[in-house]
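Try this one yourself first.
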């Protein structure tokens, strides 16, 4: 996260309670709001609420809302207390689930999916930084691990619960998610720091130079959004309807993806300690390309398992590895700004990738083409990562 938050005034909650609050926020705002929609797509199509192309566009709309939320979060926190924004975002997140229980057409869903993306972006920017700022330095590593586990946990929960919930009907599934959202909001409510201040972080000392290796790293990280989008929008639909395996099987593979997402960053972190962030980041992107593209050629059981777990693990690992790589390139006082550029680049390209994926599928109806596109984009990202590292080694700078 690129925003710094300083707790002031009344002593905050214990680190463990704050970590649970942060985990709850990301589980709700990212794990369920964003990724919980993917396993619902086959049921929405089968029930006649939307076509597959419309469902894809609705998934992409959530990504567009995330860009807006991430962009406005820090500025909004200059005018409204950050923790007030976080609590309000969690309430709106639960409300968006309830709103989607009513099949009132594409426009109605578009508004709720856009809102869910916005509040997800706000939670992703403000919640983790507030928790970490209220945590003693010696405990920040383990607390950060707990907080970001919320994303993978949300994917795993949605993959497990949603196929079972839709048997009682889509309205029941959406309302149950709303109840879960309310429960998570209650769990997190008293865990947030009592006061938070977000400095604007402006000034020349905080701005890294736009050297070739920095620019190439930003491009590499942004392109990951194009690589990751097809799986996050169409993976469950591909298994359930494209392969004819049904919603339960699709939900199982989404669960496997969530398990990968939950443990991937930690596992690849050990590798980075031995090989360095630059080399590990590049190698992981190549592995991600293989996992994304393999089902386009060999949609067998072992390949589907590899693609699910690997895409979740390596896709989420690029976050921690990308941040670590940024820390290798610039001094610590410039890291926050560079990581901010990378995060916004990823969010914008990821949202675009959702719409591009929906357009490709609407025009061709081919899942294989989507996954091939994602694999090529992962290789492009790896190429820019390698190029950035090579620029550093041969001394290119500005």
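Now uncover the answer:
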């Amino acid at each position: 996260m690129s925003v710094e938050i300083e707790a002031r005034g009344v002593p905050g909650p214990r680190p463990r309670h704050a970590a649970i609050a942060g985990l709850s926020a990301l589980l709700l705002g990212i794990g369920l709001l964003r990724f919980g929609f993917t396993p619902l797509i086959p049921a929405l199509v089968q029930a006649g609420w939307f076509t597959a192309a419309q469902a894809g566009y609705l998934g992409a709309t959530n990504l567009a809302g995330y860009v807006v939320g991430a962009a406005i979060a820090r500025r909004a926190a200059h005018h409204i207390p950050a923790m007030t924004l976080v609590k309000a975002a969690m309430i709106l997140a639960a409300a968006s689930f309830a709103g989607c229980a009513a099949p009132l057409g594409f426009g109605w869903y578009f508004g709720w999916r856009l809102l869910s993306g916005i509040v997800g972006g706000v939670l992703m920017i403000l919640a983790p930084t507030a928790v970490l700022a209220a945590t003693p330095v010696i405990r920040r590593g383990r607390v950060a691990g707990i907080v970001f586990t919320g994303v993978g946990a949300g994917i795993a929960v949605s993959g497990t619960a949603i196929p079972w919930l839709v048997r009682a009907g889509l309205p029941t599934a959406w309302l149950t998610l709303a109840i879960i959202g309310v429960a998570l909001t209650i769990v997190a409510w008293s865990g947030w720091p009592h006061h938070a201040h977000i400095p604007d972080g402006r000034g020349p000392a905080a701005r890294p130079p736009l050297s070739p290796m920095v620019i190439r790293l930003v491009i590499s990280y942004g392109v990951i959004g194009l690589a990751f989008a097809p799986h996050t929008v169409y993976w469950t639909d591909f298994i359930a309807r494209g392969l004819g395996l049904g919603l339960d099987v699709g939900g199982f593979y989404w669960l496997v993806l969530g398990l990968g997402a939950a443990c991937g960053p930690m596992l690849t972190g050990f590798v980075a300690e031995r090989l360095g962030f630059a080399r590990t980041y590049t190698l992981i992107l190549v592995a991600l390309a293989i996992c994304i593209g393999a089902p386009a050629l060999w949609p067998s059981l072992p390949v589907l398992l590899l693609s699910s777990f690997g895409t979740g693990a390596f896709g989420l690992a690029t976050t921690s590895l990308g941040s670590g790589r940024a820390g290798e390139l610039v001094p610590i006082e410039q890291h926050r700004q560079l990581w901010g550029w990378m995060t916004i680049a990823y969010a914008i390209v990821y949202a675009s990738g959702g719409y591009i994926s929906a357009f490709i599928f609407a025009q061709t109806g081919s899942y294989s083409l989507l996954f091939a596109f994602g694999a090529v984009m992962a290789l492009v990202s790896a190429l820019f990562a390698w190029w950035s590292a090579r620029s550093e080694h041969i001394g290119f700078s500005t």
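Discussion: The domain at 1-200 is CATH 1.20.1250.20 (Growth Hormone; Chain: A;). The radius of gyration is 20 Å.
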